[in-house]
Amino acid sequence: MGEQRHGDPGTPGTVERASDDSGKYAIENPGLPPHRPRTTDEDPRVAKRAERQVSFMFILSIVGTIIFFVGYFGVGQLPLDETNMDLIRLQNWLLGLGTAFAMLGIGMGIVQWGRALMPDHEWVEERGEVVTEEDRSDAANMLNDIIDESQIKRRPLLRNTLIGALAIAPLPAIAFLRDLDNTGNQSDDPAQNFGVERMRHTMWDTGTRLVRDVTGTPIKAQDVTIGSALHVVPDGLLDLEHDKLNQKAKAVVLLMRLNPEDMQISDGREDWHVDGIVAYSKICTHVGCPIALYEQHTHHLLCPCHQSTYDLTQECKVVFGPASHPLPQLPITVDSEGYLVAQSDFLEPVGPAYWERDPRPAEERGA
What we know:
alpha+beta; 2 domains; four-stranded antiparallel β-sheet
């Protein structure tokens, strides 16, 4: 019982200690590897060539930003619509390439700067709290050392091209943000030009026929079978010459039919369907992706972007995913010829629910 078995941690020498009272370590600190100077450290001509390379990348970033603005303000001022695909493709190419060159130029330039020109010595420095005036002075000296080591003072070409690239690089983002709420259809009422108010109204109106997307064919109730899912737009939308894409983005709906016995209908919506035929906005209430996947057996609608799932039998209630609001329902009925028509516009805003979705009009909410 008293014997110590071979391999017992208590046996002297079995386990190597990291250190002992003498301060010795089992494995000596090998220290930093020897510094190997780069060619840019030894040859001024190579360093100058690296400086020109970095400056070229910063200039490339500036050119990329200019290309972006040519596409955004130059081509964008031409009469763009979905029938002029050549101009749309040209603008997309200019915007994409311009943004890529603007961002990659700065990133690659800074990486090359640090790799070839900035000091690459390794060192370890213990640092304490900055509490005294002497410590603050040391911190200021450290910042000055960093500036000196970056060589930004003695390499004006690098400094000036970097400043130029950084100065105009954010401008494309500012242009995008400026037009996030600009569809070209401004109202005299400022409340109608921003946010939820613009998404409250679409081309749907009382008596507007539901027609198939692309073909524009009107739909009779008898043609919609149980389990089918049709992509539908309001009659007249496909004939628009201007603003067709913006109107379609708000008005497009999914039309489906299910057994009325499977439907859970809330008060006030009893007549919003036609014998189990229902119409819901196709725009996901999370970030606005188009919903196109309908699972007939579960009656679930799935958004392919972030997997938000809506239960059609529960008036498109969210049952999974990041969406926080049900899909807005379009009240429908049939006209005298048996064609499906809208009873009205959507009674709540469509699209992403970044705001509180109060279904009441602005005047009723006191807005």
